[in-house]
Design goal:
The protein is of the alpha/beta class and 581 residues long. It is built from 22 helices and 14 strands. The chain folds into two domains: 315 residues, ABC transporter type 1, transmembrane domain (ABC transporter transmembrane region fold), CATH 1.20.1560.10; 241 residues, Rossmann fold. It has a six-stranded mixed beta sheet, with helices on both faces. Strands 4-3-6-7 form a four-stranded antiparallel beta sheet, covered by helices on one side. A two-stranded antiparallel sheet has the order 1-2. A hairpin with a 2-residue loop joins strand 13 and strand 14. Helix 6 packs antiparallel against helix 12 and helix 8 runs antiparallel to helix 10. The longest helix has 50 residues. The radius of gyration is 34 Å and the shape is elongated. It starts with a strand and ends with a helix.
């Protein structure tokens, strides 16, 4: 297994095993297609042999009746071959469509099982490129290339076998004449897979650049990063252009060399047949067979070229099977209680030093804990570990004695939910957006959740209420409404602990007031861990945890920490002084 960025790419062995697994999943249709292709190819062999017999019949002076009889057999065999090949292709296409459905379903399952941290580090562009372009390429192969390759392979095998039966010497010379094709194919195959993998990675880089620019459009505009983003996109496009030109170069060398080589076996057999004084009918039949052989061979080589592209795509799609899962198979047992314990936790991102350097903390059920500290102290990283988004590099983060990162998604959302300033409205109805949190909720439960966060009035005013489509092509929602929907999902999930990472920090004042009122309803009766950048939040908390340089340096009530005269007291004095200035 190799990697592109942070998402794995399956090796050749893994791709072969995955292909075999897909074939076995629908082996009846696959076997039937092979049998029908074999019958079609066998029927097609009759034509050149009968033409040779016609030549011999004419040379022997036999009458028109004998020639007509042989011609009728040619027509019947051609018709039988047409029907058998057509039905074989039909079965092959059905096999391809069913197999493609399995590939798509497996990809979605694996993508959903990826830890959020893996997706974030890899970038959504790579995952998007694999789920769209690569899956589509695999689909084309399964639907079109695979059946055609199967048909042509069987035809080529039968045709060459017929030449050997007809005259082994001529057949052997014909095989030797195909040596240039074999040389060109080996040259191409040694380079093609790596070339197409590089092209796929470059396409992912372009998708990631575009996705990042669109997602951060406001930030780009605010910080005047337009030229920088343009330069980044230009570099990604240039790398993609070079990768595509390389695979184009491989094709431009491979196909002309093959086309020229096709004439060698046919011409050689005609010349050798004359030198050996073989029967004219035999020579004609052998030449026709070899000429007929070039047609499936040409298709095979074209499909082999397409298989290099689709094989690289399948390696990228199948690579998700080797990616770490968000939750190991079997998950973890249910927590014994709601207590959260952090013991000896260390964490480092791949690029940079340690962010957390041995944190110990216990969050008691029902309390409100504020986590404060300067920028870069590790507050947000700690919140992600507490929410199970990331797993610690060392130490443990548990709820009720069970590692939080090991909980199944359905169980995790009953325990801890992270609420940030980022919120998302999924393409679908209001109902769809809410049922994500609790698939079994009825309409009464949905309306109760909307009422709790102050969203009932505007949802009832929508043309179709809960069945109104939101997002692209539907009804647009503003920041306040999107946040309310996110909070309604929290109400439906009903976790015992909420982690707030400045949920209103990026909202305008009016929207922030609406959100804070909705938050007040959601927080009632729950454990709350607030990542506080504004110390007003810490003042109202039951306890305050102070983070500095990846360490938890102080822990106590607001009054205790102010009286202690430490780091928190200094932060409070600075913040309080700014507010009274």
């Amino acid at each position: 297994m190799t990697t592109t960025g942070h998402l794995p790419v399956a090796g050749r062995a893994e791709v072969r095993r995955a292909t075999l697994r897909l074939v076995q999943a629908d082996r009846a249709a696959f076997t039937a297609a092979i049998v029908l292709n074999a019958l079609a190819a066998a029927t097609g062999l009759a034509g050149p042999w009968l033409v040779g017999r016609i030549v011999d019949a004419v040379r022997a002076g036999r009458g028109v009746g004998a020639v007509d009889q042989l011609a009728r057999w040619i027509v019947l065999c051609a018709l039988a071959q047409l029907l058998l090949a057509r039905f074989a292709r039909y079965l092959g296409h059905r096999f391809g469509e069913r197999t493609l459905a399995r590939v798509r379903e497996e990809f979605v399952d694996r993508a959903l099982a990826l830890p959020a941290s893996v997706v974030e580090r890899a970038g959504t562009g790579d995952l998007t490129a694999r789920g769209t372009g690569d899956v589509a390429t695999v689909g084309t192969t399964l639907r079109d290339v695979g059946p055609e390759l199967l048909v042509c392979s069987v035809q080529a095998l039968f045709v060459m076998g017929a030449v050997f039966v007809l005259d082994p010497v001529l057949a052997l010379f014909g095989v030797v004449g195909l040596t240039p094709v074999w040389v060109a194919l080996r040259w191409y195959l040694r380079r093609a897979r790596d070339g197409y993998l590089a092209e796929g990675a470059a396409t992912s880089a372009v998708a990631e650049s575009v996705t990042a620019t669109v997602a951060g459009a406001r930030t780009v505009e605010a910080f005047r990063l337009q030229e920088q983003r343009i330069a980044t996109s230009r570099d990604a496009l240039e790398a993609n252009r070079k990768a595509r030109f390389y695979t184009l170069y491989l094709r431009s060398v491979f196909f002309p060399a093959v086309e020229v080589s096709y004439t060698v076996p046919v011409a050689g057999v005609l010349l050798l047949g004359g030198l050996l004084h073989a029967g004219v009918g035999v020579v004609v039949s052998a030449a026709l067979y070899l000429r007929q052989f070039t047609e499936p061979l040409d298709q095979i080589l074209m499909r082999v070229e397409q298989l290099q592209s689709s094989g690289a795509s399948f390696a990228r799609v199948e690579g998700l099977a080797q990616a770490p899962r968000a939750v190991p198979e079997g998950g973890a047992p249910a927590p014994a209680d709601d207590r959260i314990d952090v013991r000896g936790v260390r964490y480092a991102y791949e690029r940079g030093g340690e962010v957390l350097r041995g944190v110990d903390l216990t969050v008691r059920p029902g309390e409100r804990l504020a986590v404060v500290g300067p920028s870069g102290a590790g507050k947000t990283t700690l919140s992600r570990l507490l929410a199970g988004v990331d797993a610690p590099g060392a130490g443990t983060v548990t709820v009720g004695g069970v590692p939080i990162a090991g909980l199944e998604p359905e169980l995790l959302r009953r325990q801890v939910v992270l609420v940030t300033q980022e919120h998302h409205v999924f393409l679908g109805t209001v109902r769809d957006n809410l049922l994500i949190a609790e698939p079994g909720a009825d309409d009464a439960g949905l309306w109760a959740a909307l009422t709790a966060v102050g969203a009932e009035h505007w949802v009832r005013a929508l043309p179709e209420g809960l069945d109104t489509v939101l997002g692209t092509g539907g009804r647009a929602v503003d920041g306040s409404q999107a946040q309310q929907l996110a909070l309604a999902r929290v109400v439906l999930a009903d976790p015992h602990t909420l982690i707030l990472d400045e949920a209103t920090a990026l909202l305008d004042p009016a929207t922030a007031r609406h959100t804070e009122r909705a938050l007040a309803a959601v927080l009632a009766g729950r454990t709350v861990i607030a990542i506080a950048h504004r110390l007003g939040t810490a003042h109202d908390a039951d306890r305050v945890a102070v983070m500095e340089g990846g360490l938890l340096t102080e822990l106590g009530t607001h009054d205790e920490l102010v009286a202690a005269g430490g780091a928190y007291a200094a932060l409070w004095a600075a913040w309080h002084g700014d507010r009274t200035a």
